[in-house]
Design goal:
The complex is a heterotrimer of chains A (408), B (343) and C (293). Chain A has 408 residues and is α+β, with helices and mostly antiparallel strands. Chain A has helices at residues 2-20, 37-47, 64-73, 86-94, 102-108, 140-145, 154-166, 182-194, 212-225, 237-245, 259-262, 270-274, 307-320, 323-328, 347-354, 366-376, 378-381, 387-404, and strands spanning 27-33, 54-60, 81-85, 117-120, 123-139, 251-255, 276-279, 294-301, 334-335. Chain A has 2 domains: 23-132 and 294-350, D-Maltodextrin-Binding Protein, domain 2 (3-Layer(aba) Sandwich); 133-292 and 357-404, 3-Layer(aba) Sandwich (D-Maltodextrin-Binding Protein, domain 2), CATH 3.40.190. Helices cover 44% and strands 14% of the residues of chain A. In chain A, strands 1, 2, 3, 4, 5, 6, 7, 8 and 9 form a 9-stranded mixed sheet that branches. Chain C has helices at residues 11-37, 42-45, 53-56, 58-64, 71-79, 82-114, 117-131, 134-147, 154-179, 182-190, 195-206, 208-224, 229-232, 240-247, 257-288. The chains are: A alpha+beta (408), B mainly alpha (343), C mainly alpha (293).
Chain lengths: 408, 343, 293
Amino acid sequence: MFRQILLVLILSLFSVAAYAGCGINSGSVRVIANDFPAIHAVGDAAKECDGGGVEISINYNKDHKDIHVAALTANPAEFTSSIVANSTFVDLHNNGLIRPLNEYVEKYGDGISKNQLITIDGKVMAVAFMANSAHLFYREDVLKAAGQNPPKSFEELLTVAKAIKDKGLMEHPLGGVFKSGWNVGNEFVNLYLGHGGELFKAGTAEPNLNNAKGVAALNMMKAMTEYMNPDFLTHDSNANQALWEGGKIALVHLWGSRAGAVTDGENSTSEIENSTKFAGALTVGGGSTPAAALWWDGFVIAANIPDADAEATFRALANGVSLKMAQANQEKANWIIKGATPTAAGVGVSATAQAGAHPYPMVPFISSLHGAIGSEIVDFLQGKESAEQALSDVEAAYITVAKEKGFL
Amino acid sequence: MRHRTFVSFIWPSAFVMLLFIAVPIISVGVQSLFIQHEQVIETVENCGPFGCKQTQQINYEATETLRKEKPLGRFVGLEAYTNRNHLALEEVKESWGTANTYQEFYKDIMNLPFYKALVFTLTYTAIVTPMVLILGFLVALSVNRLPSIFKGPTIFCSLLPFIVTPLIGALILFWMIDADGIIGGTLQIIFHNPELSLKASPTLTWITLIIYGIWHSAPFSFIVFYAGLQTVPKETIESAKIDGANKWEQVRYVIIPHLMPLVIFIALMQLMDNFRVFEPIIGFNASANATSLSWLIYNDLRGSDGNMVFGSAAATSFLMIIGVCILLTPVLIRTWRSYQKVS
Amino acid sequence: MIFDQIKKFNFLTLLALAFLILWLVMAMFPFIWTLWGSFKVQGDFFSKQDWKNAIYGVFTLSETGHYFTGKGYKGAWIIKEFWRSTINTIIVTFSVVTISLTLGTLGGYALARSGFRYAFWILIIALIFRAMPHITLVSGYLFPFFQLNIWGYLATTIIVMVAINQPFTLWMLHSFFLNIPKELDESAMVDGCTRFQAFRNVIIPVMWPGVITTGLFSFLLAYNDFALTGLLLTHENQTMVPKIASFLGTTQVEGNIMYAVAAVVSATAPLFVLVMFFQRQIVSGLITGAVKG
């Protein structure tokens, strides 16, 4: 009798452990991540594996990108995983701070589709789970009133904006994430890529912006500002969302991750929300690829940690990015998880990806160039200098930084 | 005081400062003299959710061997201080040679990030510091005349701009001064100009930042002056009055000289803090029109994803320290004299 | 007090009063606006349509059915567990203030009484230390902290803040001690006390006003800091300011701005109590010290 009870007790303990740990029964999982709802959803799902020998802690920090390199450089690393994007992945990868995941994908990657894998020379270095890109938001009612069709290119965008303005429907019909610094730099990168430009001379870290395509991209930005609120250099995504919800703009190339927020029944009138429509990113300069870089968010696993912890981390995060999680949190992001279907707010990003947009470049020197663009093209947009001068300033600023970082 | 006793009193304080300020300063200083090793770049195939592409990456192993040989990097001396993103000696020299007018030269200089930031930083410091002193003094004089029951709440309300987190204070003000916000909208009505925007033009942005700076720091000088006013000896005022001094003369010849040490104290702290101006530029998204030296450092370290330029940030930090030393020299000389007197 | 004699109504008093009212309106208006707005929804308080929405609460009414809503407060305090950050802030500010004052009074006293030239140079070096931008310092801390495995703890942040706060504390307390007559502790030492006994028995009882004033400034530094707390604390250990910053969202994702507004209002309330409670001491503290510059 006693023996039987003991057996039942032990068995039940095991089953509890197995249940609580998603089958993981040892290891330490410590994740650093950005702090927003979609990441919390992934984190919460990964945390379901907590207990039964494995400890899971997730550190949400708005400034995670400023911490993770130092944290993963330490040996043993402070965190076993970081949730990264194209741009932040590069820092970790180029410093040799993350490990290949092939072995784990083979063993535990049933729920992960092949196109989620970021593979470099055959080595899986990251697993992506959500996508993002800028794309077109437009107001159907305003466009109709102006007798215009939704634009397909930036050139058409200007025509439509002009028509709206001329009809007196809106004073500044165009929005834009033009805040000086990273944001305005990002607009330039999008337009330059849309023009078919290459940011660097092939195979090197030498900048390659001061050319006809660069000038064309800048002139397009300048032309757009004619139809924008004069404060455009202070407008980040938040400001653009507020402008949209306040019915002040009718057209904007904005982050897909904001699509849900402008149609959520809050802070705006139903009239505006109902006529808010999304379309893929626009093309520019007669090109066929959309002028918007594609972004992904995904997880990586640290190199400087015990293998057992790495394995546990992979399993916990694989549970975090499961289809179940994606279905339960559909509205929070454009999941690219196996089996997940895009929502109404996700059509813009899907359309952009299908039209063959380029991913945001994953070269080690991109962030230095992006930073230089963001601070140096502002003078041109304010009309203080020529496009050529602005581009040569960008190159000069970038070269100084790139030399210091050993790229040139 | 004997040296031994002195040390036993000061060591805890000195220890934490050495560990957490002096050591980083030294390491930052050393770092600013080096640049990173040449990175060994290779081309790889990168596949992801959006297809495959040939891209470059750093050959980590090869770079690491270079790094092991010389852990500090390549020594370049003061190059980080003189390159384009800092003192830009070459660019300045070139412009001096080619520019035909001073205006053209000024335009060239303002195109260089360091000088652009320096000009704003100095303007800001030069205007905000005296204005804070004056405004704080006037508020202190006025509060001093109030009946005592009103003093408490008035003091608290006057302190509000100083005690609220600048990060959030600036965010809310940013919305209030928007062309569609309450302050911005009211200004448009006052000036009969529906296109007026405080955020669009450089001049107005500068004025906004400066007014914010004065508004934010005035309470600090107010509270110090207010306290100082309590110590003005009554007899001196009385005798001044008997001598026929009017209100203005009492303030000018009795109160201000009495408060002079406080003026120095506030000026010292304010010069330093204003020279480091940074939060309002972030809070007001003002970097298109106004940048400061601290903002340059921020931009080097946190500006874009993972683009940390330590050497450059270190160089700017050192240039800032030198700047502070120059600004403070007059105050320091005065302190030195008074110190001599005491000892 | 100086002008107590002039009770009669005159032009100057009127002018001073008018000026003061103008100043108070300027100083208080943004906070009254924020306090009012914290009971509205985002669409009203951060309206691009019409700022008057913040007064009438158009969207607040249509979204919640009332003119005022406690959604921001509920979101910040209950959903986002702002109380945790509040506890952390209490721990951090209390420790920073106590430790900096302890170290600062010892050091400041020594500097004020030393009489040797090196004391002056220590003060100057401290001043230069204060000029170092915090962001540069904090980037330097990260790697060693991770390697030593002391990153993320409240204790680490407290010590760092104490260190960064020392220059100001030393300066201020040093000038307070200069104001306390030398004869006081010297006569105690003539009576056979050691330096430390003299400090404890004679100086400590008379130094409180100065200490409280310096404490207020240390408190504000610890309370408002973002540069350090944003990067040095784990998610659970975050203090109020980085927590509020995390409500603001990122460039891709919308934040809960109204949570931030409600949290800011909540974070200002204890300051009100504190200032009301200590204002007399602060003022009397400033009287005895600082005057020497």
